[in-house]
Amino acid sequence: MQILHDTQIPALIRISIFHYLFGYIHPFYDGNGRTSRFITSYYLSKILNPLVGIRLSITTKKSLRAYYKLFEITDAYGNRGDLTPFITGFLRIIRKSIIRVNDLLEEKQRELERYQELLKQIPLKDHASEMICLQLLQAALFSADGVTLSALESPIDKTSRTIREKILSLPEGLVLVNKTRRAHRYILNLKYFDKKCSSI
Prior knowledge:
Distance between the termini: 60 Å
Keywords: ATP-binding, Coiled coil, Nucleotide-binding
Strand content: under 5%
Structural class: mainly alpha
Number of helices: 9
Pfam family, one: Fic
Protein name: Fic/DOC family protein
CATH superfamily of the largest domain: Fido-like domain
GO molecular function: ATP binding
Strand order of the largest sheet: 1-2
Order of helices and strands: HHHHHHHHEEH
């Protein structure tokens, strides 16, 4: 773990070195590959961005053959312990993760702007209802399971009771509610949203 804190080595290079050494000491066939990727993702999240850290596991899984090949090349006797092949290869995986995160964010930004324009076509009663719809839109695009009423209190500056009443007054079918948890989760129904706006 000391290598991770050696500030004389650039951060991404020391993360790559650590990743290799951990994988070398704890072979992947015994399940420690996940631990290595978790620790690496954690440090990438701190140095770059949490989304890059999360994306690394996905990128690695999609490039698993090439990923294992890096270890194979670096472990080869003729390589004489040179970590360069692994470092450069792993940096390419990190770069691929960064590019994919950037692409996904740009795509989501375009979707957000598109739905914001469509939202303007729906007659809403007041500013609070507009703000609620914007929050639920973001929940639909960026959240895995929606947003709770209590989480909406701060950005809307209303109580949960008032927010619930506002949601109930929105056009029927515009909001989806996930009731599988104790605190219900809310999102904007994008499919209905598209259909509704196309008929306006």
